[in-house]
Design goal:
The complex is a heterodimer. Chain A is an alpha+beta fold. Chain A has 6 helices and 14 strands. In chain B, strands 7, 11, 13, 14, 18, 19 and 20 form a 7-stranded antiparallel β-sheet that branches. A 5-stranded antiparallel β-sheet of chain B has the order 12-8-17-21-22. By secondary structure, chain B is of the alpha+beta class. The chains are: A alpha+beta, B alpha+beta. The interface between A and B is large, with 67 and 74 residues.
């Protein structure tokens, strides 16, 4: 039973009381029959609902195409009831938000689960701002026919959908390529972007602790150290620094830069700061789908009032130059910075 | 519409704001497959048809009226469909309603005579059935202009069907409101149910199915065909502070399923209930006070029509001046009518007599006084007779030598009468002087009647007003301005006083008494004789013994109430009270007693006035303990005091005086004590409630036989009566709850048995897939029972993990066996191929071993 059932329960009890008084004082057969019906119906309703809800399937599907700001993302909510007992009160409790603009309120979709039917509903979300759009279903409440009892079904559905700005380009712009040849350079998790792992070898005294490959060491029971191959290739590197006050412009500028580079058939890398892990991830982008992944990863990171990302980047890669820095909603070259 | 539009605009504004702030908003939620409008209207038409046809056919069948079933079914079906399809879209709604209404008016006018005759035919049958049920002496009759009932009743039903289709279309299609639907359909059925007529079961099934469907759909919210919304709107959007709710408006599949299931459930339920509880629901319930009271109203309506209810009035306390019947209830205002000062020891009630009813007029239902010109004319009384029959003459001699003085102030009582205690000798009231010429005869008559007492007064030096009293007697005009204040000298009468013959009664007075005070209207002979036989009073010789026997009979068989209800139209109040009503207030008892005494040859008269009870005296204001100017004669000084009592209209009373030959008139109380007076002020609401439920009689006039006679204590008896009176509902409820409890207790064993039978059946038939899945389900049930598995719909691999954790280490199956089992289960469930017997046997053995190990 939930708090939302309480008014219905009180109403039901009051009705029962009124009928009971009617029966006591007016002694009519049909009133007596109705009283018995009043008593029988709630358990029947609750049992049927409890039984039918076991077979209920609720799914939530995102749209297959990416969405741009101002567009509509049509999600699909499916309620499948394979049994013979209808569930008229299925409440899907969902929370949707752009992660950059969190909101507190909850939306409830009350739909019927008709028997032997998979009922589908379209949930069109109008998205006006770029960012990571998130829809999550934490619980599904199935209420019985008389609203006296509600069964809560837990759910862990979360769907993330990046809202990526429209394609746009800089006209007649040439970007510098960045280069990193420092021994201190960090590797991305896949190790392929800036400096690649040449091989793993046994630990020798003098090796840096941070180069130890702990997982492999655990497996082989010897300390293994990553040996890097220094890359001397030049490439484009975009460093997006998103700040609250210029968030829209910053995302747009980043998108514009990326689209321009893609239109030039250039692959590039995006340095994304992972705040929790305290490291930069360098995402290689050579196609539109790579860019979507980059956006996806970028949007998952929090946005701050004032970004200190460039300082962190500088501290980690002091000899880096030629970085395409997106800061204050504008594209800056590191030389300019 | 404006409201809808404003609401939408408001929602739109908020939505735009939301988009601006949060960058995301849920716009128009809709189903992928559009609901069929036709289908939805069709289903609602079915509901309306079931409700209207079920109700009308139930009523008409209950009263055995003939009608054409095919015409009715077809007609109401068409009307229901027309009504339901009014909600198809905006045009049908706004234009269709006008057309339907105009057609309805046209039909009503064109078919007026048929419809009206059908309605009157229905009323006549209702009157007849009610008359039989209540055994009413008079029956109303409505005028049927067209006498072919088959035709007229069908027309009237179509007319009512049309009306109810429109009404129920609003309650069902518009609001899906159970309360409104119930009121519209159930109240008309009360005409039959009230007198325990149960219509054929299938009509009730229709109605109950509609109630269930409407309740379920109404609460779900998926019933609203969006006829006034935007065409593309399929969800109702409600915006609350932290929540937004989108409710799907119309579920055609849900409506169909619920309608069908409701019909099945109500049919099953009604069949079971009517067979199992037939004995309890046979309409022979123990009655109760509330029902009896309602019966009175119903009877009044049946006899006098609805207008007769308006004639009912409730009277405040005070004198009714012999008027009987017509009073539904007495509601005193409890404002003081009299202020009475007198000396008393508070042990006995003091009756203040005011009005004497002599002749009972059964036309006007009134005990008329002598002074009424009709009485004089009717009885042809001479002037001498009138003088002789004065109501102050002569009372019983109690042998007391005590004289008391009472001071009476009339605050709000009827000023037409004096209020004098038994037995008043003197009064200083100016009305008395005017009427009785005390100046001429008062002193002499008092002296004659009570020679010793009067001497006492005359010689009493302590009586400070002696001179003034005597002056009043001789010079009354001096006091004409004090008509609301007067003194009375009286000889107190006690109900247990010894009676002595009164030698001063003239012989001609006794002759007059037997001439006048034995009058009984001939129309009441039968009723009175019947009652006298019932109470076995005729065999008692002594008048006082008769009086006491009557009083006992009233106490045992009648009840006191201030709200007995009005005497039905055309019935005599005395006859109705004695033979049927058997409950009433003092006027009912006093008037009936008077006529019963007269019928038994005991002269009697009907008296009205006020009674001051010991409890009134206890609540009174003590004035003085100095009795010197209030009591003359022998008395016990220590026990008495002078008090002032506020006599309210609640103390107004009626009683009887009977005449004992050679002794005189004696007041006699036959009114039983009020049940209400037995209530302690602190008595709980619950006690009063259960008292209301206690039985008075069974329908059909049977006496109660449900009381266990050997229960000694009043509380136990009361409880026994209450339980007995409620057995008709307690038994069905008890049985129902018991069955439900049984189902709960036997749920698991029954499920286990069911699974066992199913598995054996499948295994025997070579359906190893199903047989293994049943066994596997048993395993899941066991895990759930032991709270090891909480997910509602676990996957086999989840179950595998749980088993690995749960099984004890020594008996647990190894990992590969478990994986194999999971594979086998998946094979059975999804492969579409049949498991062979060997794999089945090994998997079965494994599942069983797992079950044992958990």
């Amino acid at each position: 039973m939930k708090l939302r059932n309480l008014p219905y329960i009180i109403t039901y009890i009051l009705c029962l009381a009124v009928f009971f008084l009617g029966v006591l004082f007016y002694r009519q057969s049909l009133l007596s029959v109705l009283i018995i019906l009043f008593i029988v119906l709630p358990p029947v309703s609750i049992c049927l609902t409890g039984y039918a809800s076991r077979r209920l399937r609720v799914s939530f599907d995102p749209p297959r195409t990416s969405v741009t700001p101002g567009g509509i993302a049509r999600f699909s909510l499916s309620v499948d009831n394979p049994g013979f007992i209808p569930l008229l009160n299925v409440l899907v409790e969902l929370r949707y938000e752009n992660l950059y603009y969190p909101r507190e309120d909850i939306s409830e979709i009350v739909v019927p689960a008709e028997i032997r039917t998979k009922k589908q509903f379209s949930l069109p979300f109008e998205l006006t701002k770029a960012g990571m759009f998130s829809v999550s279903v934490r619980r599904i409440l199935v209420t019985d026919f008389l609203h006296l009892y509600t069964k809560e079904l837990k759910s862990d559905i979360t769907v993330l959908l990046p809202v990526i700005p429209d394609e746009q380009r800089f006209e007649d712009t040439s970007f510098p390529k960045a280069a990193v040849e420092s021994e201190d350079s960090e590797l991305s998790p896949d190790g392929e972007l800036i400096n690649e792992i040449k091989q793993l070898r046994e630990y020798r005294p003098g090796d840096r602790l941070k180069d130890i490959h702990w997982k492999q060491s655990a497996r082989s029971k010897d300390l293994m150290v990553k040996e890097y191959e220094t890359s001397s290739d030049l490439y484009f590197l975009i460093l997006p620094e998103l700040e609250r006050s210029t968030l829209d412009r910053g995302i747009n500028e980043f998108a514009k830069t990326a689209y321009t580079l893609l239109s030039m058939k250039e692959s590039f890398r995006v340095a994304i700061w992972h705040d929790n892990e305290n490291l930069f991830e360098f995402v290689k982008v050579s196609s539109r789908s790579d860019l979507d992944i980059a956006f996806y990863k970028l949007y998952l990171e929090p946005v701050y009032e004032t970004s200190g990302i460039y300082d962190k980047f500088n501290a980690l890669y002091p000899e880096m130059y030629g970085v395409l820095r997106i800061s204050g909603g504008k594209l800056l070259l590191t030389e300019e910075a | 519409m404006k409201k809808e539009r404003r609401k939408k605009q408001k929602i739109d504004r908020k939505y735009l704001k939301e988009l601006e702030i949060y960058g995301a908003g849920l716009s128009d939620v809709r189903p992928l497959d559009q609901p069929g409008r036709f289908y939805l209207c069709f289903l609602r038409a079915i509901l309306i048809f079931l409700a209207v046809y079920g109700m009308l056919a139930a009523i008409v069948t209950s009263f055995a009226l003939p009608f054409s079933k095919p015409v009715m079914v077809l007609g109401i079906m068409v009307l229901a469909f027309i009504s339901a399809f009014l909600y198809y879209n905006k045009i049908t709604f706004y234009v269709g309603y006008l057309v339907v209404f105009a057609s309805f008016v046209f039909f009503s006018i064109y078919m007026y005579l048929y419809v009206n005759s059908g309605y009157q035919a229905f009323l006549n049958e209702v009157y007849n059935k009610y008359s039989d049920y209540f055994r009413l002496s008079t029956v109303r009759e409505a005028d049927e202009i067209i006498t072919d009932r088959y035709l007229t009743v069908t027309c009237a039903m179509l007319f009512m069907g049309w009306f109810f289709c429109i009404l129920l279309n609003i309650t069902i299609s518009g609001y899906m409101s159970l309360a409104l639907t119930f009121l519209v359909t159930f109240l008309p059925l009360q005409v039959a149910f009230y007198i325990d007529i149960i219509p054929p079961l299938h009509y009730l099934v229709m109605l109950i199915a509609v109630y269930i469907t409407v309740a379920v759909l109404g609460r779900s919210g998926h019933y609203t065909l969006p006829y006034r919304h935007d065409r593309e709107q399929h969800f109702e959007h409600r915006r609350r502070r932290k929540r937004q709710q989108y409710t799907y408006l119309a579920s055609s599949g849900g409506m169909l399923t619920i309608t069908v299931y409701s019909l099945i459930i109500s049919a099953l339920f009604m069949v079971v209930a009517s067979s199992v509880f037939a004995r309890d629901f046979d309409g022979r319930f123990v009655s109760n006070r509330v029902k009896d009271r309602t019966d009175e109203y119903v009877k009044t309506v049946m006899q006098g029509g609805l207008a007769s209810l308006l004639n009912r009035y409730s009277a405040t306390g005070g004198l009714a001046k012999g008027q009987l019947g017509g009073i539904g209830s007495v509601i005193p205002d409890y404002e003081p009518d009299l202020f009475v000062q007198f000396a008393t020891d508070g042990s006995d009630s003091v009756y203040l007599k005011a009005y004497t009813g002599v002749f009972y007029n059964d036309v006007y239902r009134r005990f008329q006084p002598y002074s009424d010109p009709d009485s004089v004319k009717q009885r042809m009384l001479s002037e001498e007779d009138l003088k002789l029959a004065d109501d102050s003459a002569p009372y019983v001699n109690t042998g007391s030598s005590e004289i008391r003085r009472m001071h009476i102030e009339n605050a709000d009582a009827d000023t037409e009468y004096d209020y004098s205690p038994y037995y008043t000798a003197y009064t200083t009231s100016v009305r008395s002087y005017d009427k009785k010429s005390y100046t001429e005869s008062g002193e002499a008559r008092f002296d004659e009647t009570y020679p010793d007492s009067f001497d006492l007064i005359k010689n009493a030096e302590r009586f400070e007003d002696e001179e003034r009293v005597l002056r009043k007697i001789s010079v009354p005009e001096l006091y004409t301005s004090e008509e609301d204040h007067y003194d009375v000298l009286y000889m107190p009468f006690s109900s247990n006083a010894e009676l002595y013959p009164n030698p001063s009664i003239p012989e001609e007075y006794e002759e007059l008494v037997s001439d006048v005070y034995l009058q009984v209207p001939e129309g009441l002979y039968e009723a009175l004789d019947s009652f006298i036989a019932e109470a076995d009073l005729a065999s008692i010789r002594d008048p006082l013994d008769v009086a006491y026997a009557l009083k006992e009979y009233f106490i045992d068989n009648f009840s006191y109430t201030m709200s007995p209800g009005m005497t039905p139209w055309g019935r005599d109040m005395i006859e109705y009270f004695l033979l049927e009503q058997r409950r009433g207030f003092c006027a009912h008892y006093a008037a009936s007693s008077t006529l019963i005494f007269r019928r038994l040859g005991i002269p009697a008269r009907y008296i009205e006035g006020y009674v001051i009870t010991p409890s009134d005296i206890a609540d009174s204001k003590a004035l003085s303990s100095d009795l010197s100017s209030w009591i003359y004669g022998e008395y016990n000084e220590g026990e008495a005091g002078v008090v002032e009592v506020e006599v309210t209209d609640g103390s107004a009373h009626a009683w009887t005086e009977i005449y004992l030959n050679g002794y005189g008139w004696i007041p006699f109380e036959t009114t039983p004590p009020s049940d209400e007076s037995l209530y302690d002020g602190r008595l709980s609401f619950l006690s009063r409630f259960f008292d209301l439920l206690q039985q008075t009689r069974r329908n059909g006039g049977e006496t109660d036989s449900g009381i266990t006679p050997d229960i000694a204590t009043p509380n136990a008896r009361s409880l026994s009566k209450t339980v007995s009176s409620l057995s008709f509902i307690l038994r069905p409820i008890g049985i129902t709850l018991g069955l439900m409890l049984l189902v709960i207790l036997l749920r698991r064993p029954a499920l286990a048995l069911y699974l066992l039978i199913r598995q054996s059946f499948y295994a025997a038939g070579g359906h190893y897939n199903e047989a293994l899945l049943v066994e596997y389900r048993k395993l899941i049930n066991l895990l759930k029972k032991k709270k090891l598995l909480t997910a509602d719909n676990p996957l086999p691999r989840d179950i595998e993990a749980v088993i690995q954790k749960a099984a004890s280490s020594d008996t647990a199956p190894d990992t590969s066996s478990l994986s194999g089992l999971t594979g086998t289960v998946n094979f059975c469930a999804y492969s579409g191929r049949e498991l062979d017997a060997v794999r089945y046997a090994s998997a079965l053995a494994l599942i069983r071993s797992i079950r044992k190990s958990i």
